[in-house]
């Protein structure tokens, strides 16, 4: 008989797959991500800033990602992601597997 008594302890963290599962993101982390993206500091994220952001995450198609995330997160359709729309952006990025945006 084989009993896995300590199975919960024996899983190395490197084996946990990096998929866009539920990753808890705090308000402070959201703000940090926003600041990191908003390079011209006008308080909103343009498509170009999103593109740079995805490029820095290692995306192969940062322009395409920026377009997708804009459509996904831009609730009032002004072409920018504002701070209160950032939640949608982060959720999208996490779902795409960019979990390393949350430090
Ligand atoms: Ca900006
Ligand atoms: Ca908007």
TrEMBL record:
* Cross-referenced Gene3D superfamilies: EF-hand (1.10.238.10)
- Return the InterPro entries for the record: EF-hand-dom_pair (IPR011992), EF_Hand_1_Ca_BS (IPR018247), EF_hand_dom (IPR002048)
Give me the ranges of the annotated region Disordered. Answer: 1-22
Give the keywords, sorted: Calcium
Is-annotated flag, keyword Calcium? yes
CDD domains given for it?
A: EFh
PROSITE patterns referenced in this protein's UniProt entry, alphabetically: EF_HAND_1, EF_HAND_2
Query: One short Pfam family name for this protein?
Result: EF-hand_7
Q: Where is the EF-hand domain?
A: 25-60
Claim: Calcium is one of the keywords in the record: yes
Protein name per the record: EF-hand domain-containing protein
Q: Which organism is it from?
A: Hibiscus sabdariffa (roselle)
Q: Read off the lineage from the record.
A: Eukaryota, Viridiplantae, Streptophyta, Embryophyta, Tracheophyta
């Amino acid at each position: 008989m084989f009993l896995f008594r300590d199975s919960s302890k024996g899983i190395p963290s490197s084996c946990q797959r990096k998929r866009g599962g539920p990753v808890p993101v705090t308000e402070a982390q959201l703000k940090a991500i926003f600041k990191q993206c908003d390079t011209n500091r006008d308080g909103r994220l343009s498509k170009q800033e999103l593109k740079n952001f995805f490029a820095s995450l290692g995306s192969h198609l940062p322009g395409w990602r920026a377009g997708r995330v804009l459509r996904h997160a831009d609730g009032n359709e002004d072409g920018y992601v504002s701070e209160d729309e950032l939640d949608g952006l982060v959720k999208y990025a996490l779902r795409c597997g960019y979990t390393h945006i949350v430090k």
